[in-house]
Design a protein that fits this description.
98 residues
């Protein structure tokens, strides 16, 4: 039996993903229409932003409470906003397609 068959890793969640995805959506609404919004570019934006911020993984209720506290801190929110801004700029300069 494979290791991943023994344990339910589907319960493991990175709460930062929710924040980054919401922030990408908010910032893209303010971007000019010339900013590519194809699936590949938008997912790249989210991935780049997520790779530059502290993850907020949770498994249990206690983990959810910890993640909620961290998400409400202004410093973390500012890091998410800045990471998304930089990710959008990076993808605009170098999209994965022509």
């Amino acid at each position: 039996m494979a290791f991943t068959d023994e344990y339910d890793f589907d319960l493991l969640r990175n709460e930062a993903e929710i924040l980054v995805i919401r922030e990408v959506e908010l910032q893209l609404k303010k971007e000019p229409e010339t900013t590519c919004r194809c699936n590949e570019c938008v997912v790249d934006m989210a991935a780049i932003a997520l790779n530059s911020i502290k993850p907020l993984y949770r498994f249990s209720l206690l983990g959810t409470l910890y993640a909620s506290q961290a998400m409400s801190e202004q410093a973390y929110a500012d890091n998410v906003k800045n990471a998304v801004t930089q990710a959008i700029k990076k993808v605009k300069r170098n999209p994965a397609h022509d």
